[in-house]
Amino acid sequence: MIDKMNRFPDDFLWGGAIAANQAEGAFDTYGKGLCVADINEYRADIPIEQKSNLEMTRPEVKSLLAATDKIFPKRWGIDFYHSYKKDLALMAEMNFNTFRTSINWARIFPNGIEDEPNEKGLQFYDDLFDEMIRLGMEPMITISHYEMPLHLTLAYQGWYSRELIQFFVKFCQVVFDRYHQKVKKWIIVNQINLIVHESFNHLGIPDDTVDNIVEAKYQGVHNEMVACGLATQYAHEHYPDLEIGMMLCGGPSYAASSKPNDVLAAVRHNQMEYFFSDVLLRGSYPKYAFRYFDDIGIKVKFEAGDEAALKNTADFMSFSYYYTRIVDEESYLNGNEAIRNPNLAANPWGWSIDPVGLRTLLNLFYDRYQCPIYITENGVGYYDKLETGEIHDNYRIDYLKSHIEQMGEAIKDGVDLRGYYAWGPIDIVSCSSSEMSKRYGFIYVDQDDYGNGTKKRYKKDSFKWYQKVIQSNGKDLNY
């Protein structure tokens, strides 16, 4: 028994993850509609710590749509739409046995409300999944990853509108029906707890159309979780062999000190991060959430059938892991915020590096839910330098090595960890800043923040290192 727990399982899934909106490009190809990511603007003049597009009004959306002098890098991505065969071949060379990406909602339902799906969009993903399977990679597919059709925020109020439940469930049913023989592992919503940090990108709620944007966000995510329950019910009833997962943006927040009020603040902060997984894995709202809503003066409305829908729980948990933060009493009272930990080193964007935090979180989640777990994003962004066709990125290897070591320790602890997906195995456009300079990949793409460059792919030093890690099933982490 001890020997088995001292190594990664023989069937462990090793791969990488991207999102359609950050990689595919071809934003207006073969009937695709505009999605919220297509109006994410790149601006070189904003601080690197500042995320873009947190909240938006309808006039701002319309202004961006009409703009002819702005840069929207997610419209071209890295042209994965046309280059996926060559890019996947590079993943296969690294020994990937799995690959995670998303289905762009606006490629299937351009406005989100059509009676029939766009066949050319469906065929693209047929071809993509076929190629993944041919190369020996099991697909892990996200249904909603910041790709809501823009029409749903202009004609409706994004997820604040109850109508989105039926639109999204229909989208889920279409992709389950179409791909159930090719895709067995699904994540319905990417990082569902990021309703504050990726507000408009995630929920699509124009803040000028609601009276209380905080209340609207929690109502919107309630509607989204109801839709997740209904989609999960459909999948379980029609295709029992499908595995339906939920996903958080992980990262425990530590108490800033041993002061009891700081410790309590960290507990309460973390509860409202776990809230989403508690609902989707346990099937109902926890009482602490209602206490929190009462404390901040908001109400979430339940409609008939909502409680029953939420009882259709996910089969596995997944989460992204990049950094940890700290909480004290003041930051909690100031909008339930977490702050940067000054005791940890960070990358150029201020994201702290805490591999032990990954082991901590794996143990916390497994203790809480006792279900299979997948790490569906993990990586670090850096400014990489291309020198005579080479990229020496030992800093990336160091980061990933230390995190994979802690994954192994968590498996020894008894955590049922089944897969690891390095974020951005090929350089893609940044989610938060829409820049290309923030690179995560094992594969360098010769393209700058403005879309200029040869688009040629280069293997970084980390490419051969990860290749060896997978080949050894996590035993050989040296370089």
Number of helices: 17
Low-confidence stretches: none
Mean pLDDT: 95
CATH level 4 superfamily: Glycosidases
Please identify, by name, the CATH architecture: Alpha-Beta Barrel
Task: Label the structural class.
Answer: alpha/beta
- Main β-sheet, spatial strand arrangement: 1-2-3-4-5-7-9-10
Structure explained in plain terms:
- The protein has one domain: TIM Barrel.
- Helices cover 40% and strands 13% of the residues.
- It is built from 17 helices and twelve strands.
- The protein has an eight-stranded parallel barrel, surrounded by five helices. Strands 6-8 form a two-stranded parallel sheet. It has a two-stranded antiparallel sheet with strand order 11-12.
- β9, α16 and β10 form a beta-alpha-beta unit.
- α4 packs parallel to α6, α8 packs parallel to α10 and α15 runs parallel beside α16.
Attribute tags:
alpha/beta; 479 residues; globular; 13% strand; 8-stranded parallel β-barrel; two-stranded parallel ribbon
Summarize the structure.
This protein has 479 residues and is an alpha/beta fold. It is built from 17 helices and 12 strands.
Layout of secondary structure:
Blueprint: H1 2-5, E1 13-17, H2 20-23, H3 58-66, H4 80-93, E2 98-102, H5 105-108, H6 119-134, E3 138-144, H7 151-154, H8 163-179, E4 185-189, H9 199-203, H10 213-238, E5 243-249, E6 253-255, H11 260-282, H12 287-296, H13 306-310, E7 316-321, E8 325-327, H14 329-333, H15 355-369, E9 373-378, H16 394-413, E10 417-423, E11 443-445, E12 457-459, H17 461-471
Parallel strand pairs: 1-2, 1-10, 2-3, 3-4, 4-5, 5-7, 6-8, 7-9, 9-10
Antiparallel strand pairs: 11-12
Helix pairs in contact: 4-6, 8-10, 15-16
